[in-house]
Structures are given as C-alpha cells and as structure tokens.
Write a structure and sequence with these properties.
Two copies of one chain form a homodimer. The first copy, chain A, has 13 helices and twelve strands. Chain A is α/β, with parallel strands linked by helices and 345 residues long. A six-stranded parallel sheet of chain A has the order 2-1-3-4-5-11, with helices on both faces. In chain A, strands 7-6-8-9-10-12 form a six-stranded mixed sheet, sandwiched between helices.
DNA sequence: CTGAAAGCGCTTACAG
DNA sequence: CTGAAAGCGCTTACAG
C-alpha cells in the first residue's frame, strides 16, 4: 500500500533526502551534486519506480498541478468537446483536470467553486452562471472564463465567441437566401452571450429593412425540459404562420425546433428556413441537413488552457487581462436553401 | 493568498490545534470537549470561513476523496453521459473526479494510470484498453471496470451491459420484422464487448436458421476515421447487394452507416433495415428514426460509483468481486419497419 | 476535559 | 559537494 518515498531512495543510495530531492528535481547541476551520486540516485529511483507524492509536494510548494474546469453540462456535446481539448492540452503541461457541471445553477456553481478551492487547484476555467462574479473575484487564483463573461467586470480573462457576429451572419445568410419574415427562438436568460445573439439577430434584420418587432422574438424559460421546449416552439409556430425562417439561439433549441417543425408537418428549408447557433452531429446528418454557425471548439479549448497556463507560470506580476473573441463559421446546409427540394434518404 | 488554518482558529479560540481538529471533525463529543469550547470553535471557524486543506489532510490520512475516471473518449456522448452521472453521484459522497481519455490507446491509458496513482486517488473507474490488466492489478486501490472487463481475470469488479443479449435482441428483432439476409458491421477489436456483440449476432441468426457465414460479417479496423468508415461500409454494401438489413455494433458505426446507405441511394427501413447498438440523439431524430438497443446510462453511472464507494468505505477485508451485468433496451423505430413507408419532414 | 508531539512526504533556505 | 532542520496543514496516539 505504502508507496516508496524519497527516504527509501536516500537510504539505498547512502545519501540524504535533500540530495535525492535535488537530483530528482533536476537541480543536480545547479546544486553541484557529483555526477556519480546523481547517476546512482537516478538509477535507484528508476529501479524502485519512484513516483513523487503530489500531495506532499503540493502541501509544501502550494502548487497542485491541477486545474478546475467548471462547465454548464459535461454531457452537452459542446462542453464535452471543450473538456476533451482542455484535458489533452493540460496534460502536455503536466496538469490534471478536476471538473464539475453547474447546470447553470448558481448554488451548484458556488458549491463547485468552494470544493475546488479547498482542494487547492492552481487555476480555474469557468463557465460562469449569473451572479457568480463575487465568488470568482474572491478566488485568489488565476481564472479564465469561457462561453460568457461579466461585461461590467473589467479585469477578467476570457475566451468567448463573437456571439453578435455569429447571429448576425446567420440571419444575414437567411436574408440572402430570400427569407423575409425571420423569427428567433431564444431563452429568457439574461446572460451576455444570449443577449448578444439576440442583438445580432435584431441588428441583421434592421440592416436589411426587415421587421424586427416583438412578435418575431420568442423567449423561452431556459429551465424547460425537452418536451416543454418542443411544445412552446410548436405553439409559437402555429400562432405565427407568416414566419418563413427561424434562427435558433442554441443547438439545443435547434434540435427541439426540428421536432416542432416536423410535428406540424412543415418541411425544413422549403416551408421554413432554419439556421442554428452552434453545430451538432445531428445538424450534419439530418435530412435535410441544418445550416449553422459553428463554434471553433478546438481553438476555444486550446486558447483556454494556454491562457491559464500563461497566468500560472508567471503569475508574479498581474498581467493585463486577456480577452479572446473568436469568430464563428457559417456552415451552409440544406435547411437554408428554399429553392432546393430535398430528396429523402 | 494563504488560507486560514486550524492554527488561526486555535489561536483565536485560545485552545490547541488538537482541540480544534477534534471539534471540526465532529469528534467533540467522543473526545469529551466541553460544549462551551466546541461552540466557540465552530463559531470562529464559521466567521473565518475555514476550509480544511485537503492536501494536508490527504497526506496525513492517505485519503484524497478523489476518484480517477478513465474513459475511452470524454467527447463521446455515451462516456460523457456516464461521466456526468459519476460526477453527480460522487459529489453526494464528498468525492471529486479526476478524468482522462485513453482513445483506446494502451500507452495513453498507462500514462493516465500512472498520473492518477501518484496523485493518490482513492479509487478508480476504468474503461480498460487491451493489455491493461497487469497495470490495473498493480494499482493497490479499489477499481471498478466499465464497459468491458478481462474475462481471464476473476477478481475484478465491473459494471457492464449484456452485450450478447443486446446483439441477440437487436438481430432477432430484425428477423421478426421479416428481414432475411442480415449483416453486421463491427470492428477488428479483440475486446470482450465487441466479441460478445458478434457472438450475439451469430447466435441469433443460427437460432433462426439464417445464414451466418463469413460474408455477412464485416470487420473494420477500429482506428479508421469517419471518412474511412463510411468508405468501407459503402464498399461492403455495394459488394453485397443481397443484404436486406444491417446490425451496427456501435453507435459510431451506425452513424457512419447512415451516411453510407444514403450515399448509395438506398432507403433505410424499406430498402435496407437497420439496428444499432447503443442509442444516440441522432437515431431518435433522424428521418427515418433508427432502431437501437440502448444502454442504461444512468444506471451504469450510479452502479459504478456505488460499487466503488462501497469498496472505499470498508476496504478492510477484501470483499468478493462484484459483477453487474445490465440489460439493454430495444427501442423500436422506423429503420426496422420494412412495411411502413416513411414520410419525410 | 485538553494539549504537546510526532509524522504524512516532500522542498528549500541555511550551514558547513 | 552534501546534509540537518524547518515547515507546509493536518490527524491522532498518547499523556495527563
């Protein structure tokens, strides 16, 4: 059960634990340990398969080489993909990832933060919920926000996408395809990323002199379940038969939207155009395939970890807050092609 | 930066760190600390927002309250869902989860195991790769395997599904629906779960006196990429035009299969029946929807964590190895209905 | 009823 | 060139 420690090596090598520690931490040269002793220690450590106890090291140095990753929902494909990249990249720098899902629930998020804090993680990557700003500010360790941020807090690091541009691009695309009465399905969430998507939608309509009034905007409570979303969207569609296209503010809404549209017998693309924010396997494979503005998942993950590591490795002077805003990519598919009649597989 | 410690509380309360530790660990009564002192300590701890340093505690007690979760791929929806449940359930017992993806690569898996080991995790939930048995046996801590196990190693705990039954059910369903020439698309993986799915397939055909020869079995290298799978499946279909139904041994293969079938202009369900192992959002939403045998994801996650916690909490005597084999549920959808012509949305 | 002391396994300033 | 010692923040056997 008990692992082998630095003492065991010291004993076998006939030197002190200090010397062993120096050699094993690559400070042999610097501390001018003789070649001979160094080699002997390394050999014994290898033979004994010595693995330093990270707990002891962490207690002493204050560094655990662990980062806390807080996402909205690890079972959501977007967050799962980001988590994968974060894990991979963190590994390259010798960091491990402790994760948790908030379900966008403030209390869950606060609990998570507390647990990670007293586990002494070195830094955090956080998808914040509403009203989490104070808790995050109190963290005393490097933090990088993702997916959303607090617009009124100047000094936070974040990696987000250009939600406004994404929505604007999506809606402009629908306009160019000839759709004229475009609605948005979004949530009541007051969070910045949702607000920006709505702004992008409205702005695109106005730029193209299309109606952007109240009745083309449908906000759903974000805590509905799948059936609830489908029901609400279906109802909205039935009450607004003049709509000829819809922009869905999240892929989750888009997926529910597919079911809603289908349930009332409309054909996507021909009867009603559709673009969703955020890609999903379903959108690519669906017949007809669904146009979307896709988030650069790989790059988001990479940027997050690199930004955090940079903070971690030279956190001596507080560097200026880093902001990365990535563009989304329009992926044109059949759901926004009114002219093309789709052949079913 | 420095957190507040037991010493700070001791000082403010005018008692020793020992007393503080006793009280904070709920051993006040047992150690017969006076009510008065206990209350004072608790009040001060609350005021100072004391959080025990888990590193120090772990170093002393040997317990980190952390479990290592090794999956094949956290970005795969099945594993992401299991991870979510594991995280949630672990949390209820005060455990946090450190995770990693193997990509089914032996070397990556070994690296992961090593890292988790020297981070002193209390126990492991592992989706093993091939040849990982020795490393796992050497772990010295409770382990529960998932998704697959080592048939030649008797004393391991695991939670798996009944792969044979699942495949058997899927194929029998196709037979009952009237399909007569059924093929399987699987991988060359030698792992137990894939072997059992193939066995279930063959057995079902034989029971129904249908041909189960070589040419209804297509094994693909499991390290192909998406395009490679699609190409291989397409080719196989073109060379075996007499097939009237396919059983896909994983949802990933099934998804590629949809694209392959579509690419050669066949209609799923009517031209060629289809059932996949393991559900996926795409299968539910696809037109036509895809029949599958679904894994009980929630229950898998719950069982895993409960089995591990049970080992953890009374690991004094080595209890008998626990084996849980869960059944899969046949979800009948349009892809296995030859008679019903599907109306496209 | 309470406390001094040892020890978990490291790292590092200090001394020689 | 090398080592003794302190200390990170806890827990717990032991003593009184």
């Amino acid at each position: 059960m008990k692992g082998i420690s630095i003492k065991d090596i010291a004993q076998e090598a006939g030197v002190s634990p200090t010397t062993v520690s120096f050699v094993l931490n690559g400070k042999g040269k610097e501390k001018r340990i003789s070649e001979q002793v160094s080699k002997r220690i390394l050999k014994i450590a290898g033979k004994l398969k010595y693995k330093p106890n990270q707990l002891a090291r962490g207690l002493r140095t204050g560094k655990t080489k662990t980062i806390g990753l807080i996402v909205e929902d690890i079972a959501n494909i977007f967050f799962a993909n980001v988590a994968k990249v974060v894990e991979d990249e963190a590994d390259k720098f010798g960091y491990k990832v402790l994760f948790g899902s908030t379900e966008d629930n403030e209390e869950k998020a606060k609990g998570l933060l507390e647990v990670l804090r007293y586990r002494q993680v070195d830094g955090y990557i956080i998808t914040p919920t509403l009203n989490l700003d104070k808790e995050i500010a109190a963290l005393q360790k490097p933090v990088v926000l993702m997916d959303r941020y607090f617009p009124n807090i100047a000094d936070s690091n974040y990696v987000v996408v250009d939600n406004f541009q994404g929505a604007y691009t999506a809606v402009s695309h629908l306009v160019e395809q000839g759709y004229k009465k475009i609605g948005i399905i979004t949530t009541t969430s007051a969070q910045i990323q949702m607000q920006q998507r709505l702004d992008g939608f409205v702005d695109a309509l106005q730029k193209h002199d299309l109606p952007a009034g109240k009745n083309v905007i449908k906000r759903l409570p974000f805590d509905l379940d799948r059936a609830g979303f489908i029901q609400e969207i279906t109802q909205y569609l039935q009450q607004n038969k003049d709509l000829d296209a819809l922009f869905f503010a999240t892929n989750y809404l888009g997926i529910c939207g597919i079911e809603s549209i289908r349930s009332i017998g409309l054909h996507i693309g021909t009867d009603i155009g559709m673009v969703s924010f955020d890609d999903h396997d379903i959108f690519r494979l669906h017949s007809p395939s669904i146009t979307c503005v896709a988030q650069p998942v790989e790059e988001i993950g990479r940027r997050l970890i690199h930004m955090l590591i940079a903070e971690l490795e030279h956190s001596t002077e507080a560097s200026a807050p880093q902001h990365v805003v990535l563009s989304l990519e329009l992926r044109k598919r059949e759901s926004s092609m009114p002219a093309v009649h789709h052949v079913n597989a």
